[in-house]
Amino acid sequence: MSRRAAALVAGVVIVLALVPVVLGTYQTQLLTYGLTLAIAALGFNLLLGYTGLLSFGHSAFLGTGAYTVALMMRYLGVSSLELFILGGVVSSAALAALLGVVCVRHTRIFFAILTLALSQVLWTLAYKFFWITGGTDGLRVPFSQLTLLGGLINFPGADAFARFITYYYYYVLVLFCVCTALMWLIVNSPFGKTLQAIRDNETRARFLGVRIWRYRWLAFLVSGIFTGLAGILWVPLNGLVTPDVLYWPQSGKIVFFAVLGGFRNFAGPIVGAVIFNYLEVYAVAVTQYWQITLGVILIVLVTFLPAGIVGTAERLRARLKKKRAEQFS
Amino acid sequence: MEIVALQILNSLFYAAVLFLIAAGLSLIFGVMGIVNMAHGMFYALGAYVAAWSVGVAGSALAPAALFIFLPLAAVAVGVIGLAIESTLIRPFYRRPEEYQLLVTFGLLLVLEDVIRLVWGGTPLTASALVDSLGLVQIGGLPYPVYNILMIGVGVIAAAGIWAFVYRTKFGVLLRATAQDRRMAAALGIDVGRIYVLAFGLGCFMAGLAGAIVVPTQAAVLGMGVEVLVIAFVVVVIGGLGSLEGALVGALIVSALRTITIQFWEEIELAALYLIAAIVLLIRPTGLFGRKT
After folding, report:
1. Complex-level ipTM
2. Can you give the residue range of the structural domain that contains B93?
3. Of A45, A95, A109, A125, which to mutate for an interface test with B (greatest number of B Cβ within 10 Å)?
4. How many of the other CB atoms lie within 10 Å of CB of B164?
């Protein structure tokens, strides 16, 4: 990382840390949603951007994380977020390990359909086994029953919501920074470089002795865990989990994050997830026809700006730089 | 025993609908190599257009005359498909698959809201068509004549599409394009025209399926999203790009669905998706698929 990039990252972190102080509870809450979704997008993009596998079933991991929290709260009486994270990471890792064995045997369109079909198995289970999962009514995860940092912080009382949002925001922010740093290390490690080699030329990678299947499976596993964590963090914020989180259009939204920001770029999906969240919230607030808004944006994006927001911005910057260099030479 | 007969008829009716949807999806994939995520929306459009036109003309025309609106709705959906292919989809043939999937996913979101915009959130029905044909007694149990008639329509449609693809000159061009687009273009086939017609035909079939269904169940928002994954299951079992596969897949899926609903309703859809996943694992090209 260059010194300039490091300064940029530090600046972004400082700005993010000031958000609850400067902006109100509502804006903080919105950004918390955005950051949890960004963790999901980070995980997703390890597969699409770095391994070249388009998953249309990542709602499965988001939903597994979320449902694990809800089920633990309801049936085991757990209230500690750390225990939720532990349980949710274990369950989404188990799911990813299992689905990965099945899915990474295929690539391209078959991979997409396979992930889609398997994620929908989970959706129907959540939807049909209503005596366990609450069916379409879902399961409630009220923030008032949540404790952070091993029980040190809790949110009793009626006016605790603003306090909850502030604390929760910082909690999510820390985890978001950890996840981003971790993913940065992963994609720049020999493992990450091998994934990119497989993405760019599978045959050559195989000639070099790379065990393609194993690398893809590991990428799938890591990707599932990140997205599962996002589901865990999302559910106390939302207060409710319904089968919608497992339904396949939710997977489409995760793909949308990556394309909006630009999936050939490390920061692209993060930016895409945060912006998508604002887009969706404001589109829903302004019009009941928010899907058409999102659909048109998606079509325009893939038609005219396939590199996404971050990718396009970077290209523009490179062009400006070149122009300036030409002027001075 | 009569129950079994009725369930077989139910299953065949459902198979006819599924075949029309899945064959269209498969045709579009086979010829153009595009997996159309918005395909379910054309089914929904067919249902809405049919229910709406039957509702508007319902008081003016005799019930028997209303049947004309079912094929008309399908034609309307086919025309919409032609327009969408030539404007939206065409720039994507040379682009990677991810973008093709995404543009059709965007189209799905748009069409879902277009339906909401035009017809609102209340379900539309066209049950007058079912009522006009009355019931027939099968072993002492009443069964709607409409369903039996539509099974016949499904059979005719399957035969018609088969003849179209395998017995006409256009079908030869279609199959040639599907096998090798560049070679077909080099031989002077107007590939762009084949593409737009294949897409229109696929949409027409999905629209017809929707039009057939809507007299028996109301057109509701979300029906297109819901049916898409089941159509995927059908083409995955039968083999992406194969018409025979779509037929066999539709029969298998509808039979399975009828059986699971009868015996263990909760696992109905889960069983279907699992079977699709297993088929993909053992035979990624499906029962009738060709190697790509």
Report:
1. 0.83
2. 23-222
3. A109
4. 14
